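Saturday, quiet lab. Running sequence design on the structure tokens for the scaffold JK sent over.
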């Protein structure tokens, strides 16, 4: 039988002559439904019932719901059909719908093959008697099925509209017994056809690409730009707006995509809430600042052709060692849980595997583990019957789709509260499970070390020199010139002596600073004493090292300069122009080295002479071999640290005040101590 996932889902706004139900999809889905019902007819989930009556209420655009009735429509007809009554008897299907829907359904009924044993009978609604005659016909059909005494319904669903209310009144007046068949229908909907599984993979593909291009890339740009005013709610809006374009880029039907839940982005501002339906706060995105790590939790949930997918990741910036270790533990636990998901395994075994792994490796994290580790999904975002917790003893079945979602809540690191979250969409296969969301989650691919040496330079010295008091100066003079001599000086003589001492020190300090400046310029500018460029480290191309070329990155420690290839030429940049440097491994795409330069706009103001200059803000380089990029990253960081240390040392030497040479006190010669 044909699969319906390849055909477009219908919209009832179309004209009846322009749409049609897919025959292959209906015969396949209807055959599977009858097979499931007949095989498990005596089980409590199906009543047991002699017939099934599934009604859908009027559509409510302002309310997000996932009723089982519409889920069943999506499987059978690839379309949600409000105000429709479906009745399943022992062999056939009966449908009561509006004239337009009935016309489309009748076209489907006429095309069903003779070999198909479950016929479709269609009735058009009659508003003149409020469908009383139609309800009587339907009730007679129900009473003629099997024993004709008990009908299975979705008793817990609240259907809006006059049509659903009128049917409920007719059913209650008929004297038929009713039984809730929600669990039976849920079990049928949980196992996806091959076509539905393909739609799940396509939904996962869109979600993963959206996460990489609209979440990760945008947050990296905000970190580079140091935009501390960009709000999380604004980012969510941009993510949601970009989903359709991603679907189009993937050559998928953008009209079939539904963002049924808004994306979730959380960071240190406003706290963390790991509920799948958490509300995003209109607060600025937290950026790494002054040694405080920035941790972002983001998730995207959407549907493609009525099949759902979820992906969630944690992004770490300047994470501390304990935070990195906690993430690695969470990821290892996630992989262990994934291996646990197999046909025939009880759902609570996933929670047991996670709890056991945490107890053995990091028992202090167990109390922070989120109580739900995921759930079944499909038409619905979250199937309550298939929640992965410590009590659910239902078993996994091949063809089911699950969201595996592990989170650690309210962790502490140096008075910083944070949470970690990883979620993927999985399809249960014949002997294991397949992860269909592809956003990276390895620690090396979701962690960035954004170093800012300017912050280190801004830190004050741990020990500040205390200015000596007058009494301490006097004691020092007594020690130097002798107590007796100091006591015999008059106050005027002592003041003159102190003034001469200070003037002499001032002259020596000025002379020393001037000598250091001349020597420094001569050392780095050559014998001519010509000052070097502030952005190159060389007088000209002739001074470039031999290893420099227009095809590779070159680090020249001697000149404190890096030479980068731009348009086939080696272009020098002095290390003082580099703000920070980061590296990221992107799997098969290689390793990316990002060099951010000091430029106006990030706390840097231009003088009047520099306003006409152009500034390079960032350079990115990609290589397939990570070893080379990691080496260059280390060399540049080491060179930058060495340069900053030497600058601090020069500044400290310039501030030194030379003292007079020590002289032996003529009044007190050296003598041996016994």
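Result came back. Writing it out in full:
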């Amino acid at each position: 039988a044909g699969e319906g996932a390849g055909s477009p889902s219908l919209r009832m706004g179309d004209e009846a002559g322009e749409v049609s139900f897919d025959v292959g999809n209906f015969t396949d889905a209807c055959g599977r439904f009858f097979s499931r019902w007949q095989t498990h007819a005596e089980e409590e989930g199906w009543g047991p019932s002699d017939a099934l009556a599934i009604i859908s209420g009027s559509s409510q655009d302002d309310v997000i719901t996932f009723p089982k009735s519409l889920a069943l429509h999506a499987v059978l007809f690839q379309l949600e059909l409000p105000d429709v009554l479906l009745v399943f008897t022992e062999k056939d299907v009966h449908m009561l719908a509006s004239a337009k829907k009935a016309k489309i359904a009748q076209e489907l009924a006429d095309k069903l093959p003779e070999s198909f044993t479950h016929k479709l009978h269609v009735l058009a609604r009659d508003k003149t008697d409020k469908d009383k005659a139609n309800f009587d016909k339907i009730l007679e059909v129900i009473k003629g099925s099997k024993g004709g005494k008990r009908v299975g319904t979705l008793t817990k669903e609240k259907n809006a509209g006059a049509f659903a209310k009128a049917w409920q009144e007719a059913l209650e007046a008929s004297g038929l017994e009713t039984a809730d068949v929600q669990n039976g229908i849920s079990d049928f909907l949980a196992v996806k056809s091959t076509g539905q599984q393909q739609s799940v993979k396509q939904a996962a593909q869109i979600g993963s690409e959206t996460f990489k291009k609209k979440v990760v890339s945008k947050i990296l740009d905000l970190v580079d730009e140091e935009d501390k005013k960009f709000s999380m709610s604004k980012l969510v809006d941009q993510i949601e707006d970009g989903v359709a374009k991603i679907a189009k880029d993937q050559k998928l039907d953008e009209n079939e995509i539904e963002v049924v839940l808004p994306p979730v982005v959380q960071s240190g501002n406003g706290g963390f809430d790991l509920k799948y339906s958490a509300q995003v706060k209109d607060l600025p995105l937290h950026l790494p600042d002054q040694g405080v790590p920035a941790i972002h939790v983001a998730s995207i949930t959407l549907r493609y052709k009525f099949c759902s997918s979820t992906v969630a990741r944690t992004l770490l910036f300047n994470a501390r060692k304990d935070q990195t270790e906690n993430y690695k533990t969470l990821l290892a636990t996630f992989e262990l849980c994934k291996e646990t998901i197999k046909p025939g395994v009880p759902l609570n075994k996933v929670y047991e595997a996670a709890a056991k792994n945490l107890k053995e490796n990091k028992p202090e994290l167990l109390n922070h583990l989120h109580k739900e580790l995921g759930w079944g999904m499909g038409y619905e975002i979250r199937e309550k019957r298939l929640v992965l917790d410590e009590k659910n003893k239902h078993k996994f079945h091949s063809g089911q789709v699950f969201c595996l979602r592990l989170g650690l809540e309210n962790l502490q690191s140096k008075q910083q509260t944070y949470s970690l979250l990883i979620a993927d969409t999985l399809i249960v296969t014949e002997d294991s499970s397949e992860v269909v969301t592809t956003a990276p989650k390895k620690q090396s691919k979701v962690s960035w070390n954004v170093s800012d040496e300017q912050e280190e330079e801004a830190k004050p010295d741990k020990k500040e020199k205390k200015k000596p008091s007058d009494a301490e100066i006097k004691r020092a003079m007594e020690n130097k010139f002798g107590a007796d001599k100091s006591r015999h000086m008059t106050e005027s003589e002592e003041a003159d002596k102190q003034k001469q001492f200070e003037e002499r020190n001032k002259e020596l300090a000025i002379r020393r600073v001037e000598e250091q400046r001349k020597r420094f310029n001569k050392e780095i500018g050559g014998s001519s004493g010509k000052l070097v460029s502030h952005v190159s480290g060389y007088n000209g191309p002739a001074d470039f090292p031999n290893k420099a070329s227009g095809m590779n990155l070159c680090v020249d420690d001697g000149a404190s300069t890096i030479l980068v290839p731009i348009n086939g030429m080696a272009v020098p940049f002095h290390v003082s122009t580099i703000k920070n440097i980061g590296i990221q491994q992107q799997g098969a795409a290689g390793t990316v080295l990002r060099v951010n330069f000091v430029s106006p706009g990030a706390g840097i103001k231009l003088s009047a002479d520099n306003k006409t200059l152009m500034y390079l803000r960032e350079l990115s380089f990609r290589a397939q071999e990570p070893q080379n990029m990691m080496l260059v990253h280390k060399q540049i960081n080491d060179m930058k640290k060495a340069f900053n240390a030497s600058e601090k040392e020069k500044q400290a030497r310039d501030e030194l005040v030379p003292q007079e040479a020590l002289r032996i006190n003529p009044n007190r010669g050296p003598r041996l101590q016994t």
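Notes for JK: The chain has a mean pLDDT of 82. Residues 491-525 form the longest helix (35 residues). Ask whether to fix the surface positions before the next round.
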